[in-house]
Amino acid sequence: MTLSEELQWRGFVNQTTLTDIKELDRKKFKLYFGVDPTSDSMQVGNLAAAMMVRCFHKHGHDVTLLVGGATGMIGDPSGKDAERNLLTPGQVVKNKQGIVSQYKQIFKGEKFRIVDNYDWFKTINYLDFLRDVGKYFSLTPLLQRDYIAARIGASGNGMSYAEFSYTLIQGYDYYHLHQTYGTNLQVCGSDQWGNSLSGVELIRRKTGEEVHVYSVPLVINKTTGKKFGKSEDGAIWLDPKKTTPSDFYQFWINVDDDSVGDYLKVFTELDKEQIASVMTKFKQDKSGRLAQKTLAYEVTNLAHGRKAADDATTHAGALGQSSQILSGQVAVGDNIIDALVKYGLASSKTEARQIMEAGGIYINNEQTVKTEFEASDFRDSRVMVRRGKALKNTIVLGQR
After folding, report:
1. Are 279 and 291 in contact, with CB atoms under 8 Å apart?
2. How far is CA 95 from CA 89, 160, 182, 306, in A?
3. Are residues 155 and 18 in the same domain?
4. Are residues 130 and 236 in the same domain?
């Protein structure tokens, strides 16, 4: 399968300045992909674009991964209806470290370079930037961009000059990488299409050379019609401190049947035959959730490593289907007898004590007669409590 064929099959075709995406099969491009350190972690949405980058790399294209130390100091206005709060330099440094560590995990075993745009912007003189970059941009097309027009229109919240300048900064990134490494393709999420075109135009005007942009579409949840990558508790992060590997694994286990086939193409590197085999078996017995289990393991392995994927699989197996729903929350030191009554495993404190004394209460599948929850009971901020041996009498409680 050629690169263009694989991109189409996996659903990675959106907008591009290329006349024909088959150009990607005939020529090896030098591409770059960037993430701003607005947080210390990427989200699932970033992972979709990163998987597209891995696809390019697999087919022999040169890859540069950019962390936006400079652009992160300003904030990207696209997709926002109000001004961002500026991060402190210390926050940006901390966030950059998180993004870089995730780049290294996602692209582990691959050959790539990591660059930080702060390294070239920290020495640029403001007047030089206006003369060497600002001079090449016309206000008219910038003001016509959807996200700018929406903000500065009568019903908009306005836009600072700093955020308005963001697209020039990103455009210069492309120019700098083109001059330094010969970069001639920027790959990005669909929300970065306008900003990416700024680099194409700047390079054309300053050098007369033609470079290109290729964007990946947003991944949409077919059930809700909304952007994919959030749970009821919020965004799904790649940082294990923000979304534990077990919760990360469980997020993928819970995806809907109609979408799981698409997610296998986007978020894993299983080939066409492997995914077809998984989906055939899944359709024969959807209750077994083979497709979701395959997806969950593959993505957790990519984001957190094989041990974390194995542990998350074991943990999910121990919790059974009950792990999909938290019955409530408890804290270290809370009374277990009270919890049994509160969450429906016993009708009264007397019954709860009788069941416990008879050996019928289990904490994380281990029989217990203790009366209070301990710190060691919580695994990834969850504890499983069961009455008797039947899984239907199992509840999962979050740590408060």
Report:
1. yes
2. 10, 23, 28, 25
3. yes
4. no
Residues 195, 340: one domain?
A: no
C-alpha 296: how far from chain center: 14
Phi, psi for 31 (deg, rounded to 5): -110, 160
For residues 73 and 381, give the distance between their C-alpha atoms in angstroms, rounded to a whole number.
33
Q: Is 314 within 8 Å of 293 (Cβ atoms)?
A: no
**What's the CA gap between 11 and 369, in Å, rounded?**
53
pLDDT tens-digit map of 283-308: 999 888 899 999 999 999 999 999 98
Structural domain boundaries, residue 243: 230-319
Is 292 within 8 Å of 254 (Cβ atoms)?
yes
Q: Which amino acid is at 248?
A: F
Residue type at 375?
A: A
Q: Is the pTM of this model over 0.90?
A: no
Helix (H, G, I), strand (E, B) or coil at 182: coil
**225 belongs to a structural domain:** no
**Does residue 197 sit in the same domain as residue 116?**
yes
The answer to whether position 221 is within a domain reads no
319: pLDDT confidence band, cut at 50, 70 and 90?
low
CB 245 within 8 A of CB 300: yes
25 domain-assigned = yes
SS3 13: coil
299 plus 355 within the same structural domain? no
